[in-house]
Amino acid sequence: MTTLNDVAKLAGVSTMTVSRVVNGSGYASPAVKASVNRAIAELGYMPNVLARQLRSSRTQTLALVVTDIANPFFTTIARGVEDAAHAQGYAVMFCNTDESVDEELDYVRVLIGRRVDGVLLVPATDSSKSLELLRKHNLPVVVLDRRLRSGEVDEVRADSEAGAYLVVRHLIGLGHRQIAALAGPEAVSTSSDRVSGYRRALAEAGIDAGTQQILFGEYTEASGHAMTERILSASERPTAVFAGNNFIAFGAIQALREAGMDIPGDMSIVVFDDLPQGWALPFLTVISQPAYEIGKRAAEMMIERLASEKPIEARTVVLQSNLIVRQSSAPPRATAFRPAPDLANLMENPA
User: Are the beta carbons of 163 and 272 closer than 8 angstroms?
Assistant: First the structure.
């Protein structure tokens, strides 16, 4: 196995100099660095990372814990985390909890044992037991996408309430008065915030709260399908659906097609979360969250906290989302509704 001495002999420098170049500590001239790096490449030398970690008590590893890695929103977040971490010399471990509190706790216990330097967490519920465990072990945490009731932790997320308000106002501007909200779990902040935005938009438009149709379920295709079947069996069907995320929308669209309904002719549908280019259903009107930026900012905040020699107070970063109007939303067929002036302005300037 190639050693530090082998590299030093080939490069014509001392082992101390090779160590400085490898570890990025101390001064070495550009010419010396180039010579050492050529020797490393030629010999295939691999630094003893484990020994370095033991000396520094750091593993240069972050963990990203998400609730559904199959969801393109979270895969895009993961890309942002990885790019920002890699730029600062950190590796990233990925964990998927399937929205399970028990799986989340299991992963956190493993990560503590693996001595990761910090955890980027998408919590399964608003009151996370995992956070308590991580705090007991003095492990830094940044929460992504969601809010925690306990506070006192770095958070990076999009404004779910404002995004939902904007896209439901878009439907109201088109003339819809019967709008169903298909939400995720009631105990998850993104779900409750999006329902709050839905309610605010309807209230401002003077739509009676008694006509609101709100169903809480899971952020899954199966849940979206089941909730859509329920609204279709109601005595008064809505003319539009607001889906709480893209997977709920997939299930809703399938249920509408099985019922022989045209989108948007028989039912408009709008969605929280866009899809990457190349995915199906490019016609959806969506609220697009800055998923890559959420991941990138969260990783940068974590690395800044790890590098700081002084305590940093908890910070909250709330990013704005964009309304993208496509073909899945249209005026309801059986109405001659004319929007009020302020809503007409919103229709003319949806972004």
Answer: yes
Vertex 293: Cα angle to 289 and 299 (nearest 5) = 135
**How many domains would you assign to the chain?**
3
Over residues 236-281, the pLDDT tens digits come to: 899 999 999 999 999 999 999 999 999 999 999 999 988 766 555 5
109 with 245, same domain: the answer is no
What DSSP element (H or E) covers 240? strand 240-243
Where are any strands of DSSP class E within 218-341?
240-243, 268-272, 285-288, 316-319, 322-324
Asked whether residue 101 falls in the same domain as residue 215, the answer is no
- pTM to 2 decimals? 0.77
Q: In the beta sheet, which residues pair with residue 240?
A: 179, 268
Place of tokens 């009151």: 127
The verdict on residue 52 lying in a domain is: no
161, two tokens: 């309430």
* Residue 282 located in a structural domain: yes
Give, as one character, the DSSP assignment of residue 25. Answer: -
Kindly give, in sequence order, each residue whose CB lies less than 8 Å from that of residue 230, ignoring residues fewer than 6 positions away. Answer: 215
Q: Using one digit for the tens of pLDDT, what is the confidence trace for 144-166? A: 999 887 667 899 999 999 999 99
Whole-angstrom CA distances from 167 to 207, 225, 252, 325 are 16, 21, 17, 9
Task: Output the average pLDDT for the chain.
Answer: 86
Task: Determine contact, residues 143/160, Cβ cutoff 8 Å.
Answer: no
The sign one gets for the Cα dihedral 311, 115, 59, 79 is negative
Q: How many CA atoms lie within 13 A of 245 on its CB side?
A: 24
What is the residue-wise DSSP string for 173-198? HHT---EEEEE--TTSHHHHHHHHHH
Query: Average pLDDT of 310-315?
Result: 89
Q: Is residue 99 part of a domain?
A: yes
CA torsion, points 111, 119, 147, 286, in degrees to nearest 10? -100
Shared domain for 208 and 277, answered yes or no, is: yes
Nearest to 292 by CA among 77, 138, 148: 77
Report, in angstroms and rounded to the nearest whole number, the Rg of the chain calculated over CA atoms.
25
pLDDT tens digit string along 62-88?
999 999 988 999 999 999 999 999 999
